[in-house]
């Protein structure tokens, strides 16, 4: 009788192990999703800040620049009137933000994980470089 009881418990134990394995897999998936969401927010914030800085510079008279050294190892792509923040070329989680174009500024540049980028307004043009421009 004792032997029969032990066999009767096997399916229950198996079921609990299976549920446990599913829970662990689900939690791991949940954590990776939370991480992906976290990085997309970080990217969006960087993109938003840069777009805001360009808009602010566009609106002020005279020449000025803003240094961004808080890029967290992301890469940046500027194209026409938008900035994209991403990890690498295969990255599906690109965060993009649009900004106001001024004058004849046509941005088309890519920065691979720069240490910093400098957004400058010189005359009636917006420039983005990795070094501080000479405003003469």
What does this molecule look like?
The protein is of the alpha+beta class and 136 residues long. It contains 1 helix and 7 strands. A hairpin with an 8-residue loop joins strand 3 and strand 4 (95-98). The model has no long low-confidence stretch (mean pLDDT 84).
Structural category: alpha+beta
Number of strands: 7
Strand arrangement in the largest pleated sheet:
4-3-2-5
Order of helices and strands: HEEEEEEE
Note the main attributes of this structure.
single chain, 136 residues, 26% strand, rod-shaped
Quick gist of this model?
This protein has 136 residues and is an alpha+beta fold.
Describe the secondary-structure layout.
Layout: H1 2-59, E1 64-68, E2 75-80, E3 82-86, E4 95-98, E5 107-111, E6 117-122, E7 125-129
Antiparallel strand pairs: 1-6, 2-3, 2-5, 3-4, 6-7
């Amino acid at each position: 009788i004792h032997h029969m009881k032990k066999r009767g418990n096997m399916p229950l134990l198996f079921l609990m192990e299976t549920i446990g394995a599913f829970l662990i897999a689900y939690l791991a998936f949940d954590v990776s999703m939370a991480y992906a969401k976290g990085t997309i927010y970080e990217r969006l914030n960087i993109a938003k800040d840069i777009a805001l800085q360009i808009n602010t510079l566009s609106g002020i008279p005279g020449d000025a620049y803003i240094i961004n050294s808080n890029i967290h190892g992301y890469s940046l792509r500027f194209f026409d009137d938008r900035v994209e923040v991403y990890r690498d070329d295969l990255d599906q989680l690109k965060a993009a933000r649009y900004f106001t174009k001024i004058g004849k500024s046509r941005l088309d540049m890519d920065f691979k994980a720069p240490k910093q980028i400098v957004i400058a307004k010189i005359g009636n043009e917006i420039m983005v470089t990795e070094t501080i421009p000479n405003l003469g």
